[in-house]
Specification:
Bound molecules: glutamic acid
CATH class of the largest domain: Alpha Beta
Distance between the termini: 73 Å
Radius of gyration: 32 Å
Strand order of the largest sheet: 1-2-3
């Protein structure tokens, strides 16, 4: 097989959303599986709607997901001359013609056709005008678009879709479509094909919403005498009400960046997106990058649309439980160094990072992450629920239970007494701390749990967490003693 070349060609009119990221992922997996090339092309010909912020957002999103590309980014506007030249070739070879029908004329004919229950498509008025007549009208100052001359052949136009099988349509169902506007600007339909031909794209993997374009583009390939790439149209990503997801109707919760900001792991999102529309054929749910690259295949892409379960516009964050479960899986199972690298920017952003975590305290840092990760859902939890491991400034869980745990007024003196016992330990370890704690409970005639639960809340702000004695050792003697000695603030309100 010739070298596989795929592309991801976003229009930079918004952020990279879940659906676009999935398309990028499928292309990337296919390229990597075949040791092929992935081309990034920014389709920026819609000057009014394209923005630099969107280009940056898309590129940052792909980088964050780890979906790298081998060529580009190319910009469609840099190749405007190629698109015009292609239209001229099509005119010269008789595959296209100039159409002088005005908007008003077209609208009127359309309405009439609809009223008479006829096909409202273009009726071919200018299809056979002849060169002389065209020149005369142009000299006359009449504006023209360029239309593609759809062959009026019997039979069916078809292509083989890797996901959907043979797709066919009668030639007579396809109207002569516009490829260049009257202002000389080529339409996306043409530019997209010309760029794919120039970029030698062998496989076009894109959403099913492009299928109406594909039917017409197949004709453009033929007329431009270029080999037809393989098409794979992937199902759409819908919300739970079965609406196509978009920024306009759903807001930020469908943006890749939203998940980045909330501490999702990039590969967890990729793993989730892979399964959102592709079926491995087994029960396997977690795939490493290498496994997914080896297993992915176009023919196991679902035909039916996929549903991404989230709540738009809610203050309370809710996203697909499956995405959360996958994220938790990776949080719990990543090797410590990988986890450490992912948590670092989160701590940096929260002002909790200490350069020593990359140096002398590396093993403390990694051991701590591993100790506390079990109940966490996202990376941000390390800076929120896990804040007390990295800073003396942390809040006490506002749930009434936290107050309840600390309710014994005597704790106000017991905790500092315990601090004094801990301070006196020459060997501050799991056994010695547990012994001191149990001894003190015995002496006071209370259950050790009273002290243990109060200590956990006082030292970490959290009601639950790792074993108390592990927490003590992780925080270290100095911090424990310091925090337990001054507990007045816990009783301030
Ligand atoms: N620019 C198009 C889009 O963002 C891409 C179309 C294609 O994949 O051919 O939808």
């Amino acid at each position: 097989m010739a070298e596989v070349r795929v592309r991801f060609p976003p229009s930079p009119t918004g952020y990279l959303h879940i659906g676009g990221a999935r398309t990028a992922l499928y292309n990337w997996l296919f390229a990597r599986q075949h040791q092929g090339k992935m081309v990034l092309r920014i389709e920026d010909t819609d000057e009014e709607r394209s923005t630099q912020a969107s280009i940056d957002g898309i590129i940052d999103g792909l980088r964050w997901l780890g979906l790298d590309w081998d060529e580009g980014p190319y910009f469609q506007t840099d190749h405007a001359a190629d698109h015009v030249a292609a239209a001229e070739r099509l005119l010269a070879s008789g595959h296209a013609y100039k159409c002088f029908c005005t908007k008003e004329e077209l609208e009127q004919k359309r309405e009439q056709a609809l009223a008479e229950k006829r096909d409202p498509g273009y009726d071919g008025t200018c299809r056979n005008l002849g060169a002389e007549e065209c020149s005369r009208r142009e000299a006359d100052g009449q504006a023209a678009v360029i239309r593609f001359k759809v062959p009026r052949r019997p039979g069916l136009l078809f292509y083989n879709d890797e996901v959907l099988g043979r797709i066919e349509r009668a030639y007579s169902d396809v109207e002569d479509f516009v490829i260049v506007r009257s202002n000389g600007k080529p339409l996306y339909l043409l530019s997209n094909v010309v760029d794919d031909i120039r970029d030698r794209i062998t496989h076009i993997i894109r959403g099913q919403d492009h299928m109406t374009n594909t039917t017409r583009q197949v004709l453009l390939y033929e007329a431009l005498e270029a080999p037809l790439p393989v098409f794979a149209h992937i199902p759409l990503t819908l919300d739970i009400q079965k609406r196509k997801i978009s920024k306009r109707s759903h807001g930020e919760v469908v943006a890749v960046q939203f998940y980045q900001e909330r501490g999702f792991l990039p590969w967890a999102l990729c793993n989730f997106l892979a399964l959102l529309g592709w079926n491995p054929g087994t029960e396997q749910e977690y795939f490493s990058r290498e496994e997914l690259t080896a297993t992915f295949s176009l023919d196991r892409i679902n035909r039916a649309n996929s549903v991404f379960n989230f709540k738009p516009g809610d203050d309370k964050f809710f996203t697909d439980p499956k995405l959360i479960a996958i994220n938790e899986h990776y949080l719990r199972n990543l090797d410590p160094e990988q986890l450490g690298a992912l948590v670092q920017p989160v701590l940096e952003q929260a002002g909790l990072w200490d350069a020593a975590y990359a140096g002398p305290r590396r093993s403390w840092y990694l051991d701590t992450l591993v100790l506390i990760r079990d109940r966490f859902h996202t990376l941000n939890d390390f800076a929120e629920a896990g804040r007390a491991y990295f800073s003396d400034q942390y809040d006490i869980d506002p749930k009434p239970l936290a107050k309840n745990i600390l309710k014994h007024p005597e704790l106000k003196t017991w905790l500092p007494q315990l601090a004094a016992r801990f301070a006196a330990l020459s060997n501050f370890n799991l056994e010695s701390t547990e012994t001191s704690c149990r001894q003190m409970a015995d002496e006071l005639g209370i259950k050790p749990g009273v002290l243990i639960n109060a200590m956990r809340t006082a030292l970490t702000g959290q009601l639950a967490g790792p074993s108390m004695f592990d927490i003590l050792i992780t925080l270290g003697q100095d911090t424990v003693v310091r925090r337990l000695s001054r507990v007045d603030h816990l009783y301030a309100s």
